[in-house]
């Protein structure tokens, strides 16, 4: 199994997960870009839209839904999301492509299994997920305000982790954001601070964890250096060992 962020941040998010071999499978986790830009990013990754077996939408915010309606309809791609996300996003199931995802219910497709789980975020029914090919496990955890025992249980045993490092607490407090926005971002239903991400990482750390990717960084209230330093302290490794998924380029293909 391998994965690649196509871009991560407040302007758009998408991640490709791919199983390799006889049961090869390509799943797009979120597609928070316009269609033209998403197709370009797929092409740069060596994947065509006709290669996609499914799309999984974590929640209804525009930087995660993007072009899902036109992409799925044009290329006949099944779309998995929670009932709450479907209702809040306004996805029109005109082609019968909508599939319902639920907390803890495994989704099996070819060489991959996806396991969604609920997270605390200011959306209708948000889900994050783990992906496995039977040999390795990838955890995807972005867009949440705080850790819960439930999500920590789901992330145990991951060999790779895409982990939100949205903001530095001091930078957010000193930012030009109005008070209500600071409260939203830093609140229990907002986004993870670097220190919170490091705490989650420490809680799921084990000897077979191979890759950690810092994701969904705020351009105003964080920096790659701060995020990497925070996660590196949790891992007891060098900051340069941490990969950061950028808004423009995401991150390279990583194998589990």
Fold blueprint:
Layout: E1 2-7, E2 14-19, E3 25-31, H1 35-44, E4 54-56, H2 62-65, H3 68-75, E5 79-81, H4 83-89, E6 98-100, E7 107-109, E8 112-118, E9 127-132, E10 137-141, H5 149-155, E11 160-164, H6 169-174, H7 179-186, H8 194-204, E12 211-215, H9 224-235, E13 243-244, E14 254-255
Parallel strand pairs: 3-4, 4-5, 5-6, 10-11, 11-12, 12-13
Antiparallel strand pairs: 1-2, 1-14, 2-3, 7-8, 8-9, 9-10
Helix pairs in contact: 8-9
Question: What does the model show?
Answer:
- The longest helix is centred in the C-terminal third of the chain and has 12 residues, at 224-235.
- This protein has 256 residues and is of the alpha/beta class.
- The protein has helices at residues 35-44, 62-65, 68-75, 83-89, 149-155, 169-174, 179-186, 194-204, 224-235, and strands spanning 2-7, 14-19, 25-31, 54-56, 79-81, 98-100, 107-109, 112-118, 127-132, 137-141, 160-164, 211-215, 243-244, 254-255.
- It is globular.
- Strand 5 (79-81), helix 4 and strand 6 (98-100) form a beta-alpha-beta unit.
